[in-house]
Write a structure and sequence with these properties.
The longest helix has 9 residues, at about 45-55. The protein has helices spanning about 45-55, 65-70; strands at about 5-20, 25-40, 60-65, 75-80. With about 90 residues, it is of the alpha+beta class. Strands 3-2-1-4 form a four-stranded antiparallel beta sheet. It has one domain. Helices cover about 15% and strands about 50% of the residues.
């Protein structure tokens, strides 16, 4: 079983919070929360198919790895594949 969805990055928020190691706060780290929604049916074939399958919803990812969140661009769409972890 595998399901593919297509989400667009609409916005993000940034906050600082304590980084912990061995039960002690060792400093601050920046976290970016990425906010995605399913693509809409804009008339293109693929987007229409994804919209018909997943018309509403949201996805939030909290990312502390700056190298990872720098690769995400506002307004860009991304595929999300769901496969069982078992």
């Amino acid at each position: 079983m595998s399901v593919r969805a297509k989400f667009r990055l609409n916005s993000y928020t940034t906050e600082m919070f304590d980084k912990w190691e061995d039960g002690k706060a060792i400093g601050k780290v920046e976290k970016r929360t990425l906010n995605f929604t399913p693509v809409y049916g804009d008339g293109s074939g693929e987007n229409r198919e994804f919209w018909d399958a997943t018309p509403t919803g949201s996805l939030q990812l909290g990312v502390v790895n700056q190298a990872a969140w720098r690769d995400f661009q506002l307004g860009k769409a991304y595929y999300l594949d769901f496969t069982p972890a078992d």
